[in-house]
Amino acid sequence: MRFDIVTLFPDFFGSPLSSGLLGKALAKGIAEVYLTNPRDFAIDKHRRVDDEPYGGGVGMLMKPEPIFAAVESLPVLPRRDVIFVTPQGQAMDQPLLKNLSLNFDQIIIICGHYEGVDERVMQLVTREVSLGDFVLTCGEIPALALLNGTIRLLPGTVGKEESLKAESFEAGLLDYPQYTRPSVFRELEVPPVLRSGNHAEIERWRRQQQQERTRDRRPDLYQQWINEQQSSECVE
Fold it and tell me: Any idea what the CATH number is for the domain that residue 208 is in?
């Protein structure tokens, strides 16, 4: 799978792309990441990529010409998505990441800066994605989150792919609590059921913990899960 990041700060991605599972996935060829700097496509001698907004206002906007030229310089794979990361986009969540990992050969991510980009850049974009209801100094942070979350779902990235099926959000619920040795630490004991060897009981306990944890910590997700369970029962 190919990722193209259009960014004014390619150095931002240096360490993350060479570290941990992400670095290993790229080394194994599971995914490829290419960094393209719009400044390399600026058309004036000062290589300017920003300008004042028409109509006045505070701050500067990224100019359209360098971004268009940067995106148009990239190869075009059959199944391609061009993403602009912005607080105005759809929420970045697990279903979105799964959709990207399954249905696309190429993902282009445009990272904004300053007060944003010239609106005409949206003509290039097929999807706007938001990391959350807050504003960051750059688009590289959500771009890296999207990159990481998508690549880890590609076959071969995570050693035990079965673990992907049991983590938070995969079943509409948060993950259950987990423990390792020692069985008692500072008078805090691992729940006896996990040491019982009774796999059916362990499974029931984990499922119950998922429901209770989601209900207490994310009532919005819990209500959505309840609604889905009820809809499923009606269909049956």
Answer: 1.10.1270.20
